Amino acid sequence: MSTQEERRRRREAKANARLEQGSQDDQENKMQEQDPEARKVLRSKYRELKQSIAEDDEELGRLDSNRFHELVDKMDDLSKEVMKPREQIADAEAVANLASKLLGNVRGMIRRSGTSPSAFVTAILAKFGNRTAVDGEVVEVQWGELGLEAIGFMREAPGVCTMLGPMDIEPKVRQAQAPRAKRARPTETARAEEVRDQGEAAAKSETDANMEIMFNILRRHRPARLDALVLNRHSFSQTVENIFSLSFLVKDGRAAITYDSDGTHLVAPKNAPSVDARQSGQVSNTQFVFRYDFNCWKVSISVFGVHVSFTRH
Fold first, then answer.
1. Which residues lie in Basic and acidic residues bias regions (predicted)?
2. Could you say which DSSP state residue 167 is in?
3. Cβ contact 267:224 at 8 Å
4. Contact 283/297 with Cβ under 8 angstroms?
5. Has this prediction a pTM greater than 0.85?
């Protein structure tokens, strides 16, 4: 870009900035110089406009009425004289009242199943009808202008539906289906043999074996410390399995967890309650859920120290 072109653009930018500043200054001067009496007259005109909007409810609801356009034009003329916030509030209230009144009329027409056919035809003839110069009768309707007016509300262009393709196509003959051969009914009834999951049975037997081992340990060392019973310092998975086996013993009532005066948790064996005692409600089990992950296992090793463990390694 040449130097002269840059200077010319800078001069134009400065001139535009001065014009904008001048228009803002003129606007501020008009706001300061506006006569209080003129503002009072302007507010009274807005009150009359609001009253007209409230009284012309029926006139605004008619399709052949130009009252809405008249009120809008009057509102535009009054808004040109608005300079102060008080008059701006009156202008906004007038716009809101007119919009609310128009919306109420539209909703009322919808509730009344819309416009009647006679009113619709009358409105079309009034706006798009060519009238004679002598008696003013409608001789034709300007369909082109009506289509241009309504094209904004249509999603598809109107057209003529035609059928494509030759007319001498013969229908296809359906082939006769061959009869199906009858199936012989079975003479003997058979029942499938129930197959159990070997993995589930093996896991259940292993859990029962671990429970028996732990119960025998409790019988030999009663009471036993909880950490010495379940904690395996060389295997996190074995520790979790020991806790799992102990939970079943407590659930079945074959072991009880208590604590001494020092707060050390102790586990002792006990006789499981009978079925009658459980059903009668004399004995009730109390269970709880606690979190135990790898970090808890590492903390348990450092907290409880090294001592004899009853569990197998």
1. 1-17, 27-39, 185-204
2. S
3. yes
4. no
5. no
Q: Residue 234 in contact with residue 311, Cβ under 8 Å? A: no
Helices of type H across the chain: 3-33, 36-55, 57-60, 67-79, 85-111, 117-128, 143-150, 198-220, 226-230, 236-251, 275-280, 294-304
Mean pLDDT of 257-261: 83
Amino acid letter, residue 22: G
Residue type, 155: R
Distance CA 155, CA 84 (A): 45
Return phi, psi of residue 291, to 5°.
Answer: -90, 135
> What's the start-to-end Cα distance of the chain, in Å?
87
Cα–Cα distances in angstroms (integers) from residue 96 to residues 47, 90, 105, 148, in the given order: 13, 10, 14, 31
Burial zone of 27 (CB within 10 Å; 0-12 exposed, 13-18 middle, 19+ buried): exposed
Q: Quick one: three-class SS letters along 11-52?
A: HHHHHHHHHHHHHHHHHHHHHHHCCHHHHHHHHHHHHHHHHH
> For position 128, what pLDDT does the model report?
85
- Give phi and psi for 259, each to the nearest 5: -145, 150
d(Cα 225, Cα 221) in Å, to the nearest integer?
9
Burial class of residue 303 in the structure, from the number of CB atoms within 10 Å of its CB (0-12 exposed, 13-18 middle, 19+ buried): exposed
pLDDT digits (tens, 9 = 90+) for 304-313: 765 545 544 3
pLDDT at residue 311, rounded to an integer: 47
Place of tokens 């807005």: 46
The β-bridge partners of 259 are: 265
300-307: which pairs have CB atoms within 8 A and are 24 or more residues apart?
A: 300/227, 300/231, 300/239, 301/231, 301/233, 304/227, 304/231, 306/233, 307/228
Please give the backbone phi and psi of residue 183, each rounded to the nearest 5 degrees, phi first. -90, 140
Question: How wide is the angle at C-alpha 238 spanned by C-alphas 198 and 290, nearest 5°?
Answer: 100
Q: Decide: helix, strand or coil at residue 73.
A: helix
